[in-house]
């Protein structure tokens, strides 16, 4: 057996993409509540009132609220995250389906604004605490280990309006209050935690030609999140020594697209800036040597205190976790054959095929990533997101045939098996969107990832009925055989 009997097979979702109930039981708003749907070619838009009281919208990516403006929800817009897939009311049914597949672990996130609606209350929102207690208890009753993301792109909107997007040191204390509350509240119920989902997106998706000012903001934002994460690790261990707390990196395997030494160096800098910068700080507790070079390139001066450096040292993570969807080929040469799609950049790799959203399908890249990262940090690894966003069709008999998804998973599981054989300590695999949910990048429902289909559509219609796809039965068999039986 390549996968240990204690291996955590499972699936993953995030609060804002699944729960819905955006304004129920005292929950405060998050950025996704003022973000419309988009598509692979049209950006999601943020809606707001400008200082003169006029309705406005602007592309979500890189958006900054103008002076005097405030975020707003408009009656004539559709906000897909408002309903999500209504996990808030369907969690029991969904957990029963996960159990039926044999899940050992389920990754979900806590919505910060359910616990502290504006982020600055003295006391937490009891109804929010109760909701997650019910969910975690249900998981425990079903023998499924919860893996909880503390922050999955959902800072309370009130904080964003007041302080901007993590540009302010005060975020560290606010986050600390929030994590203390949840570590204390769920002691004994939750053991596995992740501090910040895809923390590296802030610099990894910042274009190389972005201004020095944009770089300054991104690196400062990250520094505050590093300190907040490190403090959370320390507090989590103090509250319950059983807690295992990880970082979460958006894992992309970078390849140079030519053997021009300039491309080799460029590729290395992609790994450094995009992947290692965050992993090194969170796993090793200090900034890597190349950080100085990166800062110098953009004339960055960070607000860093001695206490921050001490916190980073004290708060190294117990495990390295990451998402993996694709590799990217990069080059310094002019090349118009770029592959688009949300969050996917780079030039076409002629050896690979691409998803309908332009993401390179590359299981070998997962093996490469696992072995490279394990060698660098020697900490237990978890693949906490991996999956294929694709169109699904419900047949007249109600069945949903998704052989492309089964094939995708089969090849990625084989890649993980090879890495394990080669000595990597991989302990968990939670596939992304084990049940269909709202896409983070495009806000679409039709970009479906699930083993479970949800009858919800981009125009807001749908009964929310859950239906099993062919991949549901396949994954069940995979788990039952500990990853040995990968046949259709
Ligand atoms: C990751 C996010 C997830 C998830 C996934 C797929 O970056 O952590 O929230 O959504 O990507 O992306 P998308 O939803 O855009 O298909």
Describe this structure in words.
This protein has 488 residues and is an alpha/beta fold. The protein has a single domain (8-38, 79-480), classed as Glycosidases (TIM Barrel, Alpha-Beta Barrel), CATH 3.20.20. The protein has helices at residues 15-18, 80-83, 87-101, 112-115, 126-141, 157-163, 170-185, 201-204, 212-239, 261-284, 289-297, 306-314, 363-377, 403-421, 470-480; strands at 8-12, 45-49, 55-59, 70-71, 105-109, 145-149, 192-194, 244-256, 319-330, 353-354, 360-361, 381-385, 426-432, 452-454, 466-468. Helix 13 packs parallel to helix 14. The longest helix has 28 residues, at 212-239. The radius of gyration is 21 Å and the shape is globular. The two termini are 19 Å apart. Bound molecules: 6-O-phosphono-beta-D-galactopyranose. 6-O-phosphono-beta-D-galactopyranose is lined by residues 14, 17, 197-198, 250, 323, 342, 385, 389, 432, 439-442, 447.
Quaternary assembly? single chain
Strand content: 15-25%
The helicity comes to: 25-40%
Instruction: Report the major sheet.
Output: 8 strands, parallel, barrel
Could you tell me the mean pLDDT?
96
Report the top-level CATH class.
Answer: Alpha Beta
Outline type: globular
The helix count comes to 15
Radius of gyration: 21 Å
> At CATH's second level, what is the architecture?
Alpha-Beta Barrel
The first-to-last residue Cα distance is 19 Å
**Class derived from helix and strand content:** alpha/beta
Spans with pLDDT under 50 lasting ≥5 residues? none
Here the CATH topology equals TIM Barrel
Ligand kinds: 6-O-phosphono-beta-D-galactopyranose
The total domain count is 1
């Amino acid at each position: 057996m390549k996968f240990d009997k204690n291996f955590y097979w499972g699936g993953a979702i995030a609060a804002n993409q699944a729960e819905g109930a955006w304004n129920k039981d005292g929950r405060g708003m998050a950025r996704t509540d003022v973000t419309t749907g988009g598509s692979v070619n049209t950006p999601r838009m943020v809606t707001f009132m400008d200082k003169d009281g006029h309705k406005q919208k602007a592309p979500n990516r890189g958006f900054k609220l103008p002076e005097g403006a405030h975020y707003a929800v408009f009656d004539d817009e559709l906000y897909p995250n408002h309903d999500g897939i209504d996990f808030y009311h369907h969690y029991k049914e969904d957990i029963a389906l996960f159990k039926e597949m044999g899940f050992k672990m389920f990754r979900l996130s806590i919505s910060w604004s359910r616990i502290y609606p504006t982020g600055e209350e003295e006391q937490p929102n009891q109804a929010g605490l109760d909701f997650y207690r019910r969910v975690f208890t249900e998981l425990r009753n079903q023998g499924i280990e919860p893996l909880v993301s503390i922050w999955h792109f959902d800072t309370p909107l009130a904080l964003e309006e007041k302080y901007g997007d993590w540009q302010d040191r005060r975020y560290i204390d606010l986050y600390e209050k929030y994590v203390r509350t949840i570590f204390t509240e769920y002691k004994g119920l939750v053991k596995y935690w992740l501090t910040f989902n895809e923390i590296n997106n802030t610099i990894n998706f910042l274009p190389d030609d972005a201004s020095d000012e944009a770089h300054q903001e991104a690196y400062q934002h990250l520094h505050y999140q590093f300190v907040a994460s490190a403090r959370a690790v320390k507090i989590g261990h103090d509250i319950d020594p059983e807690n295992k707390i990880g970082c979460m990196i958006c894992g992309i395997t970078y390849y140079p697209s030519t053997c021009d030494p300039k491309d080799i160096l460029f590729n290395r800098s992609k790994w450094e800036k995009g992947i290692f910068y965050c992993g090194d700080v969170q796993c090793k507790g200090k900034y890597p040597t190349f950080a100085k070079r990166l800062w110098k390139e953009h004339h960055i001066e960070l607000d860093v205190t001695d206490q921050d450096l001490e916190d980073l040292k004290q708060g190294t993570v117990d495990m390295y976790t990451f998402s993996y969807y694709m590799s990217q080929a990069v080059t310094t040469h002019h090349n118009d054959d770029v592959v688009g799609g949300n969050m996917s950049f780079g030039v076409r790799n002629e050896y690979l095929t691409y998803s309908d959203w332009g993401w390179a399908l590359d299981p070998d890249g997962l093996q490469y990533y696992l072995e490279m990262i394990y060698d660098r940090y020697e900490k237990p690894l978890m693949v906490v997101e991996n999956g294929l966003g694709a169109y699904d069709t419900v047949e007249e008999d109600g069945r949903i045939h998704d052989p492309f998804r089964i094939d995708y998973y089969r090849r990625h599981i084989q890649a993980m098996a090879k890495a394990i054989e080669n000595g990597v300590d991989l302990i968990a695999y939670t596939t992304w969107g084990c049940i269909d949910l709202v896409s983070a990048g495009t806000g679409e429902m039709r970009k479906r990832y699930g083993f479970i289909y949800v009858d919800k559509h981009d125009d807001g219609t749908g009964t929310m009925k859950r239906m099993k796809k062919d991949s549901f039965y396949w994954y069940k068999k995979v788990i039952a055989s500990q990853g040995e039986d990968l046949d259709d």
